[in-house]
Design a protein that fits this description.
Oligomer: homodimer
CATH superfamily of the largest domain in chain A: Jelly Rolls
Number of helices of chain A: 8
CATH architecture of the largest domain in chain A: Sandwich
Radius of gyration of chain A: 19 Å
Shape of chain A: globular
Structural class of chain A: alpha+beta
Number of domains of chain A: 2
Order of helices and strands of chain A: HHEEEEEEEEHHHEEHHEEH
Largest interface: A-B, 34 and 34 residues
CATH topology of the largest domain in chain A: Jelly Rolls
Largest sheet of chain A: 4 strands, antiparallel
Chain lengths: 250, 250
DNA sequence: CGAGTCTTTGATTAGGATCAATTGCTGTGG
DNA sequence: CCACAGCAATTGATCCTAATCAAAGACTCG
């Protein structure tokens, strides 16, 4: 068929390295959290962060674990999902570099509500909630940056609520694809579209849109037949942004 | 019928007053934003806040207005809803005393995404985004408190996303009623339940749960027949928390 | 009392979920 | 290198939840 190909164009990322101290400092400095700090201050920050690598599919933490760490993705992607008894997971975030997950503030005995899984091989810097809280108090600009990040997340969440409340599935799928292409678009697969640069199963898409695998598959087949997207096992690429936007707008 | 009554037990609140300066200071001090500040600091804060009263139904701001003010409810309730072209509004928040709305940070030319309407007569303290930003920088504890508030909102939003993605309507309605009773429960109407202390139309409930008025009405009728709630025009009271919780848990 | 709004109830429809196979891709091991 | 195991994706058939369409009842207020 015109819009089908057989091999996922997604190059897989691997990162089996260990950060040196100065590297760690540099990475943290690139992060929106700590962008405002100078070299000396970054040293202080770097001291409380530890680096860990995960291979694709590895579990970072599970819902129910004590909520005591804040983590920042520095390479690769991490999938945050809320599990439910009957296996109907909800995908709350697909985080790329410089995005955070875990607990920002809660020092008490709160439990994690979500699973965090390495969606690709990835590298994560993390610290315990207590140390992070100390950083917030010590460096006011960090608190402000954090506030901005959380506020942005809240806005995204509210947009998602709006979508789930009122849009039919094809519209939600279109909007989700566009958002992903925007955030993770590795431009151009060989058919001149914007390839979503992350392994993306139908199940993932279903968990993001609150639909079922089957429905998502049907919707994508339809979009593909119309030439709006290309898709295959674990990948999607946007080929006709205009049309998708029209659907996403209603 | 056993569970019907004719008059809404909701007492309407009225507040046609004007805060004196010390009153304003005291109110701000009770707010989670500024609880950590001392009297002198509160004076400074109070200077940039102005008080406004609204009568029930009055519009505070509309989606599309420039996003330039942060407001804190000090009495009454404010309804935050996201309008959509086809009138399918989404109710994002029903705010009571000490909850905030408006823009925390965006100093640019951002536009409000939501309508804010006085849901009851209410009293609001507000300031412009710029002044608030200055307060955040001047008083680090305020930034931390704000961060905690926004993080809490984010958690609520994620819970809502989970519900909308996977729960059927009766479950969402039950969960919503319990949450409202928790937050706004004026205990005891004359039938020994927990009355939700706010005017609450079926439409509001529909906008909160992403369902239609008709469906909500049917669900409530069902709950009422089972004796789990009492309800009437613009009010609901929870009479059998246990059973509702069972539904809300699935 | 009568207009207007909110609520309830019924009948019908449709969007998606569910159930059930089948096909196709990938990586593995003989 | 090919066969096969295993998972991902597709497609079809059916069912069901909730939306839609339509109307009538209830409460409120001027």
């Amino acid at each position: 068929m015109s819009t089908r190909r057989r091999s996922p164009v997604t190059p897989v990322r691997v990162e089996p390295h260990r950060c040196t101290a100065p590297e760690k400092r540099r990475l943290l400095g690139t992060t929106p959290f700590f962008a405002a700090l100078d070299a000396r201050q970054l040293d202080e920050v770097a001291e409380v962060f530890v680096q860990r690598n995960f291979t694709a599919g590895e579990t970072i933490h599970r819902a129910g674990d004590p909520a005591e760490r804040l983590s920042i993705v520095v390479a690769g992607q991490v999938k945050i999902s809320r599990p439910s008894v009957d296996g109907q997971d909800v995908l709350l975030g697909l985080l790329g570099p410089y995005e955070h997950f875990g607990s920002l503030l809660e020092l008490g005995d709160a439990a994690c509500r979500d699973d965090a899984v390495a969606h690709s091989d990835c590298c994560v810097l993390s610290t315990d909630a207590e140390s992070f809280h100390a950083l917030l108090e010590r460096f006011p600009p960090v608190a402000l940056a954090t506030l901005a990040l959380v506020a942005a997340r809240l806005r995204e969440a509210q947009a998602t609520i709006e979508q789930l409340s009122t849009y039919p599935v094809p519209r939600r799928v279109a909007a989700t694809l566009l958002a992903l292409a925007e955030r993770l678009g590795a431009d151009d697969d060989d058919a001149g579209g914007v390839l979503i640069g992350v392994a993306l199963s139908r199940q993932d898409l279903a968990d993001m849109t609150g639909a079922t695998v089957e429905t998502v598959s049907r919707v994508l087949s339809d979009f593909r037949r119309r030439g709006w997207i290309g898709s295959g096992r674990q990948w999607v690429s946007v080929r006709d942004r205009e049309s998708l936007e029209a659907i996403a707008r209603g």
